[in-house]
Amino acid sequence: MPEKTRCVHCGYGGRPEWRPAWLALLALLVWLLPLGLLSQGFWPFFLLPSIAITAWAITSVRRVCPGCGRPWQPGD
Ligand SMILES: [Zn+2]
How many A from CA of 50 to the centre of ligand 1? Predict the structure, then answer.
């Protein structure tokens, strides 16, 4: 059974985009530093900013339709 991925506004059929995409990417990349430090046995001093940036990304990044730019609401 195929997943329902179609925009209710314009009928775009496909995957939604993450916007802003750079913030979603940043939220992933900032974890490389503290996790890298932790794996080497150092204190992950960048841990708190990483949590803050991830929390910021969770509240700011939205899925939007690439076709019409409106917030993604998959319908059928
Ligand atoms: Zn759309």
Answer: 32
- Find the farthest-apart pair of alpha carbons in the chain and give their distance in angstroms, rounded: 51
Q: Which domain holds residue 48?
A: 7-76
Query: Which tens digits make up the pLDDT trace of 19-76?
Result: 999 999 999 999 999 999 999 999 988 899 999 999 999 999 999 999 999 999 866 5
Residues 6+ apart with CB under 8 A from 53: 26, 27, 30
Q: pTM to 2 decimals?
A: 0.74
* Separation of CA 29 and ligand 1 centre (Å): 29
Residue 2 belongs to some domain of the structure: no
Separation of CA 36 and ligand 1 centre (Å): 40
Determine the distance separating the centroid of ligand 1 and the alpha carbon of 19, expressed in angstroms: 14
Please indicate, yes or no, if residue 57 is contained in any of the structural domains: yes
Number of domains forming the structure of the chain: 1
